[in-house]
Amino acid sequence: MPWVMLQTSRQQFKKILLLTRIILRLTVDKKRLSSDILKTNQHFEILDGLRGIAALAIVIFHFMEWVYTDPGKNLIGHGFLAVDFFFCLSGFVIGYAYDNRIGKMGVMEFFKSRLIRLHPLVILGAVLGILSFLFDPFSSQSELYGTGKLILLFICTVFLIPFPVMEDRAFNLFGLNAPSWSLFWEYVANIIYAFILCKINRRYLAVLAIVAAAALCFVSYHTGNLMGGWAKSNFWDGSVRISYSFLAGLLIYRFNGIVKNQLGFIGLAILLSLVFIMPFFKWNWIAELLVVLFYFPLLVSLGAGSKLSMGSKTLCVFSGKISYPLYMTHYAAIWVFGHYYTINKPTTGELSIVIITGTILLVGFAYLVMVLYDIPIRRYLTTKRQQKLD
Fold first, then answer.
1. How many Cβ atoms sit within 10 Å of the Cβ of residue 114?
2. Residue 15 has pLDDT above 70, yes or no
3. Is residue 20 scored above 50 in pLDDT?
4. Less crowded by CB within 10 Å, the N or C end of the chain?
5. Looking at the 3D structure of the chain, how many domains does it have?
């Protein structure tokens, strides 16, 4: 009997030991998965800096399009193409950041990552939009809308549901914060990436890019430009713009199309800025098409492969960090400026002062938004997520 009891005890001890090992292994695997989900890859600082240049171009373009309704007379008339650069950059960054780990983290965790990164500023943009609409000192258009409609407009802007009903705002997809149109298409691209693009090989991806390029050619020829995607009348143009540029950026990563060079941030910033000040001419639709099809992907390749000097690093980091806050918060002020310009008809000298001062103030405001709102909110959400994963 003692011998039998000893054997039984040994068997029980072995079972307990085995169970302990399994639990420990599961715990380690969970922690490893948690680490894989929340880790961030090395940044391409020059690309971050170029993103900031593009965001600044968008702000100046939005100021100037009130002054020059004819884009051909606008010094920065092609500033809207910065959005296509954003899309291409996004495809490259998403591929770089998630191609090798989305299988481990899963689709839902990928969506959580993107929501934490993008949506706090979508919400803030909606808040700023409705505040500027209600308290614009140069306009009383808010009186034309009932409380129920304003609430619906706000909810649609917060949740990125296109609701182009504001005639006085050219039927923008998101009347309270116009730049949200590109975030809508960014989310669409992220969803398609998570369910389809991350699973197909680069040859099929290249075929899709060729189809998207053909669609882009049609849109550019048919409309005479690549400015669409933001309003009810040109809604589907946005799908074409995001399709090609996102795929192009993803292909650069998949084919390792990084071009080593010595241009540095300043050189590449100049090359990018040349696009925005490119003049309009008879074959403008071809010029815009060539920029989006070839020039922007080339700049992304060069930006990923260029060396960053120590003198430019601080500028690149700052530029990259404020780019998204600047893009998502500036348009509330643009509407106020537009109504001020329409009513007061300022002189050229006054306009110069207002636009330069306004741009500087918007950059400063974007920095405060980043420090006091965006980073703390994302840090809080990431911490809560980490606690659940642990």
1. 18
2. no
3. no
4. N
5. 1
Structure tokens, 209: 């890019």
Is 18 within a domain? no
Ramachandran bin of 136, using left for φ above 0, alpha for ψ from -120 to 50, beta for the remaining angles: beta
- Return the amino acid letter for 24: L
- What confidence score (pLDDT) does residue 311 get? 82
How sure is the predictor about 28, in pLDDT bands with cuts at 50, 70 and 90?
very low
Enclosing domain of residue 202 = 43-389
Q: Tens digit of pLDDT for each residue in 224-239?
A: 999 999 999 999 999 9
Q: For the chain, what is the mean pLDDT? A: 90
Instruction: State the helix-helix crossing angle for 331-344 and 45-67, rounded to 10 degrees.
Output: 20
Beta bridge partners of 261: 306
DSSP string over 280-333: P-TTHHHHHHHIIIIIHHHHHHHHHHBPPPHHHHHHHHHHHHHHHHHHHHSHHH
And the tokens for 46? 């020059």
At 144, is the pLDDT very low, low, confident or very high (cuts 50, 70, 90)? confident
Q: What is the pLDDT of residues 230-277, one digit of tens each?
A: 999 999 999 999 999 999 999 999 999 999 999 999 999 999 999 999
For 272, the token pair is 């990018």
- Tokens representing 206? 């290249």
Which residues sit opposite 231 in a β-bridge?
A: 172
Side chain identity at residue 304, one-letter code: A
Q: Do the domain assignments include residue 37?
A: no
Provide the pLDDT for residue 93: 97
**Contact by Cβ (8 Å): 347, 303:** no
Query: Is 369 exposed, middle or buried, given 0-12, 13-18 or 19+ CB atoms closer than 10 A?
Result: buried
Distance CA 193, CA 64 (A): 35
Q: 35 in a domain, yes or no?
A: no
At residue 356, does pLDDT exceed 90? Answer: yes
What is the phi-psi region of residue 304: left when phi exceeds 0, alpha when psi lies from -120 to 50, beta otherwise? Answer: alpha
CA-closest candidate to residue 332, choices 170, 191, 126, 166: 126
- Kind and range of the H or E run holding 378: helix 375-389
Count how many Cα atoms sit within 13 Å of the Cα of residue 118 in the half-sphere of its side chain: 20
Residues sharing a CB contact under 8 Å with residue 217, sequence separation 6 or more, in sequence order = 289
- Report the Cα 52 to chain-centroid distance in Å: 11
Task: Look at residue 13 and tell me if it is in a domain.
Answer: no
